[in-house]
């Protein structure tokens, strides 16, 4: 099998060079040029999900979120143009070394949840997964996001983590350390699609910006919005805190694209 894979991989690599396959890495975004924004936007699907397509400099551009646990190698997106013609677009996924971060949390149950905690976590996970993978019309006016709070970056996206010495999932968002009670703004306009008080994430607000672009804001001390509320960019959705699994007051901000958590920095504007 090993002997067979070598030539296949080389063949794929030369194919990608010939087609100029766009590249990214786990937790990153593939920006896929889809031609002039004259006809209606093409439809793009990736791993069974619709993908955000935005207009940039009078061209259509697909923004494809790559999962943090994606293996380096080749993936493919399916593009259907306005006329119904379909084609496959290979995407090159390159390895990316995220640093390791060791954390200590006081509440041992946040490291080794007991059966009740696990049952609660499983219940909460289902609702959150639905919110992370939602597809809601209309498309966002912009795919450029703003920071929810102006705070010190205390933990970057993608860090491979240990809690009290035990390996756990990589960090799927950006942490911004701010004093308890700091107003937390929506990173872009959207609709509040879910709120809750969760085992790991604490008090949390999901803002659905449209077409698979979704923000999740965690560890809040207070939630100031309700499901269904329409919020403008920067509008206050709650106050920062340290609820759930947190080592101190901060805002954890995750950004989802086509169901995958991606590095928020990839969509952050200049301001
Ligand atoms: Zn975090």
Ions, cofactors and other ligands present here are: zinc ion
* Helix content range: 10-25%
Named CATH architecture of the largest domain = Distorted Sandwich
Number of strands: 22
Q: Note the run of SSEs as H and E.
A: HEEEEEEEEEHEEEEEEEEEEEEE
Shape: globular
Roughly how many Å apart are the termini?
Answer: 51 Å
Give the CATH topology of the largest domain. Answer: Glucose Permease (Domain IIA)
Q: Which structural class best describes the helix and strand composition?
A: mainly beta
Say what oligomer this is: single chain
Mean pLDDT: 91
* Main beta-sheet annotation: 8 strands, antiparallel
Give start-end ranges of low-pLDDT stretches. 10-16
Write the layout of secondary structure elements.
Elements: H1 2-19, E1 23-24, E2 29-36, E3 43-46, E4 49-50, E5 52-56, E6 59-65, E7 73-80, E8 86-93, E9 100-103, H2 115-132, E10 152-155, E11 160-163, E12 166-168, E13 174-177, E14 183-185, E15 190-198, E16 202-210, E17 213-220, E18 222-223, E19 230-231, E20 236-239, E21 250-257, E22 260-262
Parallel strand pairs: 1-8, 9-11
Antiparallel strand pairs: 2-6, 3-4, 3-7, 5-6, 7-8, 10-13, 11-12, 13-21, 14-20, 15-16, 15-19, 16-17, 17-21, 18-20, 21-22
The protein binds zinc ion (ZN).
Zinc ion is lined by residues 155, 171, 173, 175, 252.
């Amino acid at each position: 099998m090993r002997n067979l894979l070598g030539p296949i991989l080389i063949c794929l690599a030369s194919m990608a060079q010939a087609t100029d396959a766009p590249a990214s890495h786990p937790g990153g975004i593939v920006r896929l040029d889809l031609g002039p924004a004259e006809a209606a936007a093409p439809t793009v699907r990736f791993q069974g999900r619709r993908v955000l397509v935005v207009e940039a400099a009078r061209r259509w551009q697909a923004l494809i979120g790559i999962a943090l646990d994606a293996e380096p190698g080749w993936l493919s997106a399916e593009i259907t143009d306005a006329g119904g013609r379909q084609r496959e677009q290979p995407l090159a996924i390159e390895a990316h070394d995220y640093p390791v971060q060791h954390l200590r949390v006081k509440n041992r149950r946040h490291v080794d949840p007991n059966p009740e905690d696990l049952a609660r976590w499983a219940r909460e996970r289902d609702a959150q997964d639905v919110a992370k993978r939602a597809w809601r019309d209309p498309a966002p006016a912009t795919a450029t996001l703003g920071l929810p709070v102006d705070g010190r970056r205390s933990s970057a996206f993608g860090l491979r983590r240990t809690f009290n010495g035990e390996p756990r999932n990589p960090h799927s968002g950006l942490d911004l350390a701010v004093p308890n009670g700091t107003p937390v703004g929506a990173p872009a306009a959207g609709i509040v699609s879910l709120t809750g008080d969760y085992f790991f994430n604490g008090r949390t607000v999901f803002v659905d910006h449209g077409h698979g672009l979704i923000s999740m804001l965690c560890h809040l001390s207070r939630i100031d919005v309700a499901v269904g509320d329409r919020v403008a960019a920067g509008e206050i959705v709650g106050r920062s805190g340290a609820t759930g699994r947190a080592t101190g007051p901060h805002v954890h901000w995750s950004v989802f694209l086509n169901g995958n958590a991606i590095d928020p920095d990839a969509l952050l504007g200049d301001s």
